Amino acid sequence: MIITKKMEIEQFTDKNRKEWDEFCLKSDDAWFWHTINFMDFSMEYYQNANPVNRSFLIRNGKEILAIFPLIKEEREEGNILSYASVHFTPNPCFRNSDSEDFKKKLLIMGMKEIDRIAQEEKCKECRIELTPLSKEHLHKLRYNYLMDFDFFETSTVTQIIKIDQNIEKVKQNIRKTYRHIFNNYKDKVNFNIYDYKNIDEETFLKYKNMHHKDAGRITRTQSTFRLNFEYIKEGKSFLSEVTLKNGEPLGYSLFYLYKNCALYGSACSEPSSNLPISHLAQWGALQYLNKIGVEYYDTSNQFPSVQLLQDFDDKKKQISFFKRGFGGELHQVFRGRKFYDKEYFKKEVLKQL
């Protein structure tokens, strides 16, 4: 534990779980990615990386002033500070009541601790993303402050839809070809939503089996599916299902819910079907979000073109085009990568050249 005047840095342990989540609920910097739920998911997602939780808090006596999520993973190319293998580490979070100057002092203190941990763990890099659905970032943040701490700018964009109370207004902003799909298939398929009110083991097993079938393999640990099931039961997630009229499942999309906002998580569909299942599952979800009064829906990060220090392929480009068809506005997703090894940095740059 490092002492700085009356403030101290404390390594996260299981005894902090309850107060960590309570802090997330209160902080305008936090969204679902910051919670214990997603921390557990990240620790379970890619066990081959031998993840170690290096998250920490900054305290003033008993009171938490800030939280810094952080997980060390072992990769083939070396250790990195990341989250759930493919995700960036969520941004630090602060108390709403503190001044911007005081928050900056805490940020500097926390970033120095991240550098210290990176050196201790012999990490090649640290990846951080400023979560776009947090209230602070959605309405106020206009600058990628990671650049002040020697992070390379690797920002991207996302499409965020404001869910109007009138679902027809939401529909009007969706790409015309998509609206034709909704109209053409409304009498040919059924839409079902599974949330905390009606999810059961049998339905979730159908989703999990289709996930494996669509991918052609088991892509992640069984424990992460168990966690997904628990999130749905807790009201932090839901499934949008599309079936034939006889009830045969065609596909599912998984969404996260937190602080009256929603985010698109993942999708799977019957490989033998040529129906526009993902489009239909999204429409079913949008109608549900409208019904329960969710304010914003984030279609999740887009990667429309080749950029240095970003993984990119044609599939990501196609997914980006698909997401933009559902309306909403483009928002900057501030991200950054900080490198602690020059040779590793050179190799990462050359990946996209």
Reconstruct the topology from this structure.
Layout: E1 2-4, E2 7-11, H1 17-26, H2 36-45, E3 52-53, E4 56-60, E5 63-68, E6 71-75, E7 78-82, E8 89-90, E9 93-94, H3 100-120, E10 123-129, H4 135-139, E11 152-153, E12 156-162, H5 167-172, H6 176-185, E13 189-194, H7 201-215, H8 222-233, E14 237-244, E15 249-258, E16 261-269, H9 277-292, E17 296-302, H10 314-324, E18 329-333, E19 335-339, H11 342-350
Parallel strand pairs: 7-10, 8-10, 16-17
Antiparallel strand pairs: 1-2, 2-4, 3-6, 4-5, 5-9, 6-7, 10-19, 11-19, 12-17, 12-18, 13-14, 14-15, 15-16
Helix pairs in contact: 2-8
User: Total strand count, please?
Assistant: 19
Number of helices: 11
What is the name of the CATH superfamily of the largest domain? Gcn5-related N-acetyltransferase (GNAT)
Number of domains: 2
- Say what the CATH topology of the largest domain is: Aminopeptidase
Report the sheet-strand fraction: 25-35%
Q: Just give the CATH class of the largest domain.
A: Alpha Beta
Structural class label: alpha+beta
Structure description:
The structure is a single chain. Helix content is 35%, strand content 29%. The chain has 353 residues and is α+β, with helices and mostly antiparallel strands. It has two domains: 152 residues, Gcn5-related N-acetyltransferase (GNAT) (Aminopeptidase, 3-Layer(aba) Sandwich); 173 residues, Gcn5-related N-acetyltransferase (GNAT) (Aminopeptidase, 3-Layer(aba) Sandwich). The longest helix has 21 residues. The mean pLDDT is 93.
